[in-house]
Structures are given as C-alpha cells and as structure tokens.
C-alpha cells in the first residue's frame, strides 16, 4: 500500500470515527434530555397519564369543550407522547382517584373543572379565583385587564406542579382565567420545561402566576412569568376561632 493510499484510508477512518463519535454524543445528549423530561413530568416510557378536561362555561352542554382548551389538550398530548407515555383524556367530573398513581395534567379553573377545585382546596388553599376576572394568592391580586384602544389587555393563569410525595407521580394544574389563558400556560410549560426543572428540581411543588399579554391580539403566544407564589399559595389559610373561645 502506497503512502498516498494509506493517507486516504487513514483519512476515511478518521472521518468515520469522528462521525460515529458525534452521532453517539448527540444520541447520549438526547437520551439525557429525555430522561430529565420524563422525570420532571413523572412520565416514564410506557406509562399513562391523565389529561383532565374542563367544560365550556358558556355552553349549555355539560360535555362541551372550548376550542382553545381542545388546542391545549392536543399540545399536552404531544408533550406526553414525546416522553414515550400515553395520554388518557378524562372529563373533569369523571376522575375518582387520588394523587400519585399517575401523572396528571388538570386543565382549567375551579369553576370549569371539579378536579382543579379539589386540588386547589387541598394543596393550594391560599389560591382563589374570582370568577373569570382575577386570581388572588394570599393577599396579592392578579386581575384581568380589558382590552382598549390604548392597551391590548392582559390575562393571567396559575401554573402549578404538585408533588404527592412518597415517589408518586406529579399533578400539573394549568388554570387560566380564560380558555386562551389555559392554552398559553400549556405553551409556557412546554417551552420552559428545562428551565423549570433547573429552578425547582425534578421533584417538589411550585406555583407560578403567568401573564398572557394581549390574548385578543396575540393569542396564546406571548406569556411571561409574573410571580413565583409557591410559599403564599401553599400556606394554610387562617380560620376564625369559634365563638366563645379565646
């Protein structure tokens, strides 16, 4: 074998080894990202999770779903599938199980979703929804702004992750003041999952308030974090002492 041929062969081998090493590195990175995503959402490959569907508040039918909530559910299904898991879509008044057995995404506020109302009352007792106009956490209010000629109007959503403990699967509560705010919060969760995992860990509870900027103009696309309200949201609510006690 001449030196020229040998150099060509060595060059080809070097290129092949470099390509194989690059492919292996990319594969390992994708695998690590997948494992972290599965851990954060509580969705190991082959598992099932609940997508809890709210009802359309302005529809006379108890089984009607707002089109923005349908879009949000579709995006959640894509997210679940990306973890190698399977979504099980269930109406909000048909779920009869505790927390931890399956990962769960609970969509909609307490007025449209009985399951959301139960989660808030138990795990986030300081969170209150004032109809479709405001979210109050502790003493802090996040009130929807009406769109005017001078302002696009803003809306708000609560995004929370509830850890049931004992190694159970988490519950994600996605509760906007409107259906489009629900959709926007799902977009935020999907887009910022790695950042949320770094900030809050792969386990544990957090509660965030998001602002949906100008939803009538921009749809669910412009979303920003307003406040981390975890401590206030999870704090027990003070109750009045019974009459005659001190």
Strand order of the largest sheet: 2-1-3-8-7-9-10
Question: Looking at the structure, what is the overall shape?
Answer: globular
User: What structural class do the secondary elements suggest?
Assistant: alpha/beta
CATH topological fold name: Chitobiase, domain 2
Major sheet details: 7 strands, mixed
Q: Which band does the percent of strand residues land in?
A: 15-25%
In DSSP terms (H or I, runs of 4 or more residues), the helix count works out at 7
Helices and strands, in order, run as HEHEEHEEEEEHHEHEH
* Total beta strand runs: 10
- State the separation between the terminal residues, measured CA to CA: 100 Å
CATH architecture: 2-Layer Sandwich
Helix content: 25-40%
CATH class: Alpha Beta
Q: How many domains comprise the coordinates?
A: 1
Please state the CA-atom Rg, rounded to the nearest Å.
23 Å
Give the overall average pLDDT.
86
Which blocks of ≥5 consecutive residues have pLDDT under 50? none
